[in-house]
Amino acid sequence: MATPIKVNRIGLEPQVYKGGKTTLCAGCGHNAISERIIDAFYEMGVDPKQVVKLSGIGCSSKSPAYFLGSSHGFNAVHGRMPSVGTGAMLANQKLIAIGVSGDGDTGAIGIGQFVHLMRRNLPIIYIIEDNGCYGLTKGQFSPTADLGSKLKNGVVNDLQPIDTCALAIQLGATFVARSFSGDKKQLLSLLKASLSHRGTVMLDVISPCVTFNDHEGSTKSYAYVKEHDDPLEEVSFVPFFEDISVDYDPGTTQEVKMHDGSRLLLKKLEESYDPTDKLAAMRVLHETARRGEFATGIIYIEPDRDDFLRQLNVVDEPLATLPLERTRPGKAALDEIMESLR
Amino acid sequence: MSPTDVVSQEQTTPARTKVVNDFSIQVATVNGSGSQTANLVLLRSILLMGIPVSGKNMFPSNIAGLPTWYTIRASKRGYIGRKKEVDFLVAMNPETAKEDTLTLDAGAAVVYDENLKLNALRSDLTFYPVPFDKLVTAVCPDAKLRRLVRNMIYDGVLAKLLGIDMAVMEQALTKQLGKKAKAVTLNQGALKAGWDYAEANFTKQDPFHIERMNETAGKILIEGNSAAAIGCMMAGVTVVAWYPITPSSSLCESLIGYMRKYRIDKETGKATFAIVQAEDEIASLGMVIGAGWAGARAMTATAGPGISLMSEFAGLAYYAETPAVIFDVQRVGPSTGLPTRTAQGDLLSTAFLSHGDTKHILLIPSSVEECYELAMQAFDLSERFQTPIFVMMDLDLGMNNWMSNGFEYPSKPIDRGKLLTTEILKKLGDWGRYKDVDGDGIAYRTIPGDGMPAFFTRGSGHNPKAQYSERPDDYVVNVDRLNRKFETARQHVPGSIVENVKDAKIGIIGYGTSHWAIIECRDQLREETSVSASYLRVRAYPFTEDLVKFIDTHERVYVVEQNRDAQLAMLMRLELSPERCAKLRSVLHYNGLPIDARSVSDDILAQEGFEVAKRVTHASASSMTGGE
């Protein structure tokens, strides 16, 4: 008797969500992130035909080729993926966009586009695979390298790092989280919650570079991150399609209702931390950074703000496929314009 | 004798020849003084009198305070290019009045603010001093509004002096100000004050007259940027991303205006478009590429500096084969300096924009009508060839007012190019995103969300199935196919407009706004020296086959351009034989002012061995310095 084939809620097998074979280094944190993306999209039953995968340039940006092989992908130019993603979503707001960037791709060459993406609240899941260095060009510091962090050759970073989460919150992103590629459970919950959010999700995932930034003295090594990971809450995600009642203590657990009806249950680990409070979010980021730690989990969330498409008051159907009758005004309109010019 | 013929007048010295409907008026004001309304009313009045007319604004990169000149040309023969000589000066700007007056040709007329005392400067001009301050105080009790109304007085003075029907001028005024009743009344008062003052105080002494003709029925007045915007709307554009830059901003701004009026869904009140002011030109093109990739008709508009910034993305779009429409409203060079002056200086850099082996399709409109038509065609070509299309306009075309026939409603549906469907997929069997199945270099594409097979989009490194590849043979196959696609485009871009003159030894090649100077220049050559010149107007790159034939049938070919380095001629030399290259001469105009027929004629005549009189460079050219 054949074993029944495992499928998700839209009847697709896990295989459909996989991508090409990775060409990144063995043990690279980015590969773990790709695996979590595959799991999250499979478990949430996302139609891969509706997904667009976007990236810039760098090790991180190669990774969309390694997940969701049956989705469209676009490997854009260095630091400019946000604009390409914006254009794609303007063309077809029914798409689900996932953008993968790196800390150099976002924090250096792409900081301008990153900043403006956050301001617009475009519906997109924007992941920074953050290892504090440039891998593909062999290990130079990136703008998220911490003060005092040391390169393999002994060079010490003495420039202030950019905290992409603090920046994203300040600029108006509506779902800002940080995680660690080694924390399977937390990352998966955050990715699933991301799929339920309508607006910009900014997910900074510390993802150690095993080749160039995993040594003693680095603040982005596996050992250092494991030691200094400071989760704000225990993240549980209850998708809209699972009719499960979960008992929780409202005194210690905060429930956040997502756009699609899913629920986020955040069991507090930090005393009285409220991720819907912008000021508290900024404070916690500063405080943990001062201690040399990484605050992880949902740092800030605002589930109800209008996304960019709604702000633009665009029709519900994809603009890309509107029929000509709706995109070319009639002859009367041209006649009226011509008359106004006589 | 028709009223428009030149008539000798028997008068006391100096002997004056009556000049009817064939002269230019230059209004010199201070930027930001509200002269635009007065100038447009004057322009439209002449149009409504039935006389072909054009208006050109020569303005500084400044909001207020620097000198600005507006030139209106009336031409009974229908010439709407710039006229080099100024015949009638309206001097309102103390800063430039002296130099503007000193550089006029003898016989010109000057209406001026009497405080400027210009009449003392020369004895060979006709002077009409007007007490503007006194007149405006009488008609405009509110001191705060006087600055805006003051200029309307010179319209009244000119109406009287030139013979423009006052009723026509009031009609033009109402058209300009629309429903603002209070403003109309106030300005009507100023118009009348000017007229009354001229009637009471001046005896007509200059030879310039406006007399009714019937040459402008049905004509419109429009800027090229607005014309292109209408074309984009009619092409069914759905995504627009842009970044403000002179002289292209008004293209997107007028598009916003039209789209809000005509492209809002009646039932839902929602927009059938998305227009985004991006953070820079790089992001503008990035958004357009993303949108084009996802199946939208998408465009941006910019000028040279923006084109430079778009370079990397333009190359990506060329290799990834995504449609994009980019308007380049060309202007003079980088940074500060002459951003508000016209040029055709981006041709060469745009044709090869980006790194690696890249070449792009350029469309080059000459008229506002072509801005409209080529805008529509650009979208069809970009989807047909799955590549960026650059529409090369210039400041003169984009920002100045041009008289034109009304635009025709498009008779054809749009062409969305080779999109994969279930039927085609069945026929092909084995689909590859970059596989040339038809031999024209164009592969079938799919768009996200269409249910067809997906592919991964990258730059140069992919095989016909869109898989990552660094294999030498895959790369060569791909770039050779891209070249084949470019050659296919040669058969589909708009062909040249050719006017061959029987037995003409010389030919002229031009493009863009040089067209208007060239048609007038050909008349000058024929009438002044009996030199006949054929004419070919290039409308696209890659060049179409007519170019070679034209060169072969003429002994010498003059390529007229508004840049220093003969950029179009350089592009031509890349593909012409040495014998054909040897026939090429250049006529180059690059001082930031729109090209004029006289300069072209004199240059060609000099190269043809004729004695050409040295002419004084005109005032506006030498005095446009302004301080910062």
Summarize the helices and strands and which ones pair or pack.
The complex is a heterodimer of chains A (342) and B (628).
Chain A: H1 29-44, E1 51-55, H2 59-62, E2 72-75, H3 81-91, E3 96-102, H4 103-107, H5 111-120, E4 124-130, E5 133-134, E6 140-141, H6 164-171, E7 175-180, H7 184-195, E8 200-206, H8 222-228, E9 229-231, E10 233-238, E11 253-257, E12 263-268, H9 278-290, E13 294-301, H10 308-311, H11 324-327, H12 331-340
Parallel strand pairs in A: 1-2, 1-3, 3-4, 4-8, 7-8, 9-13
Antiparallel strand pairs in A: 5-6, 7-13, 10-12, 11-12
Chain B: E1 7-8, E2 17-20, E3 22-30, H1 35-48, E4 53-58, E5 67-75, E6 88-91, H2 97-102, E7 109-113, E8 126-130, H3 132-139, H4 146-149, H5 152-162, H6 166-177, H7 181-201, E9 208-209, E10 220-223, H8 224-234, E11 239-242, H9 249-262, E12 274-277, H10 281-293, E13 298-302, H11 304-309, H12 311-320, E14 324-330, H13 347-351, E15 361-363, H14 368-385, E16 388-394, H15 395-399, E17 401-404, H16 422-428, E18 456-457, H17 472-490, E19 497-499, E20 506-510, H18 514-529, E21 533-537, E22 540-541, H19 546-552, E23 556-561, H20 567-573, H21 578-581, E24 584-588, H22 597-607, H23 619-623
